[in-house]
Amino acid sequence: MDIHAELKRVTMFLADYAATLMAVGVQTSRVVRNTGRMAESFGFQSHMLIFQRNVIITVNDDEKEHTYTRVQKIPQLGLNFATNMNLSKLSWEVYDNHMSLDELETRFSEIRDRPRESPWTVLLLVSFANACFCRLFTGDIVAMATVWLATFVGFFIRQQLMKRHWNHLAVFTVSSFAASMIGSTGYLFGWGTTPDMALGTSMLYLVPGVPLINGVMDIIDGHVLAGFSRLVNACMLIICIALGLSFTLLITGISVM
After folding, report:
1. pTM more than 0.90
2. Phi, psi of 73 (to 5 degrees)
3. Residues with Cβ < 8 Å from 61, sequence gap 6 or more?
4. Which residues have C-beta within 8 Å of that of residue 147, sequence separation ≥ 6?
5. DSSP labels for 29-97?
6. How big is the CA angle at 57 (ends 52 and 61), to the nearest 5 degrees?
7. Measuring CA to CA, which residue among 232, 249, 168 is closest to residue 206?
8. What is the chain's Cα-based Rg?
9. For site-directed labelling of 211, which of 6, 13, 98, 222 has its Cα 20 to 30 A away?
10. What whole-number percentage of the chain has pLDDT above 90?
11. How far is CA 211 from CA 117, 127, 146, 228, in A?
């Protein structure tokens, strides 16, 4: 294959690979390492610049006589730890076994297009997990049941609004409001002995833990721009959660002081 054609094809694949890793919630330094490892297996070197919405990658041969640059938009895929793990594993398989580009593209497509878990399964598991968080914060059985219902309704609303391509900030605000309204029923009707725990933990499923962790790790690893953008996005989501809760408190007149 002509060096220019091969370089272009490899660059386009690596750009798609790196953008997919970013979309499923991978730490920036790992994206750079995995992509560089793949480029090295084909005898090339890669250089990357990663933003919140785009990945810019430049690939050149060892002699730096031939260079190709690609700008790839990061897709909206959502967090997926299984895809994260399998794509990282794929980079080592390519490096160790020197797979052909055709085989690599096939494997990548299989991993990327693999069906996600059933939305109903995720909905139920998240509801039970958040109820368990309530128990960790000393919530009683009534508070746990309230949190389970609040999480079920709030997360279901989130799933449906995301399907309709709502802005993610609006989705978090509406979901937080719905969950906190149900979580406030302990206060309103005098149910249980820990209504404060029910209200306080009803929105925990929305906390953007992965973006916060990735943002801090990116800054520590020297990817300040990517880390800062992730932290800003996470802080905006937290503000939206607080807005949803504030609307509930205004409507119900509950004072948590």
Report:
1. no
2. -75, 140
3. 3, 7, 43, 44, 45
4. 130, 131, 133, 134, 139, 183, 197, 198, 201, 202
5. HHHHHHHHHHHHHTTEEEEEEE-SSEEEEEEEETTS--EEEEEEEPP-----HHHHHHHHHHHHHHHHH
6. 165
7. 168
8. 22
9. 13
10. 65
11. 21, 21, 28, 10
**Lowest-confidence pick of 172-176, 188-192, 249-253:** 188-192
What is the model's pLDDT at position 1?
A: 56
Tokens representing 1 are 């294959």
Residues 6+ apart with CB under 8 A from 193: 140, 142
The per-residue b/e assignment along 209-224, b for 16 or more CB within 10 angstroms, e otherwise, is ebbbebbebbbeeebe
* Residue 196 reports pLDDT greater than 60: yes
Give the domain ranges of the chain: 3-112, 119-252
Closest CA to 22 of 208, 166, 230, 232: 230
**Cα–Cα dist 188/183, whole Å:** 10
To the nearest whole number, what is the mean pLDDT of the chain?
90
Average pLDDT over residues 156-161: 95
pLDDT at 127: 95
Is residue 55 a contact partner of residue 19, using CB atoms and an 8 Å limit?
Answer: yes
Tokens standing for 252? 């119900």
Compute CA distances 197 → 149, 188, 202, whole Å: 14, 14, 8
Q: Cα(63)–Cα(15) distance, rounded to whole angstroms?
A: 21
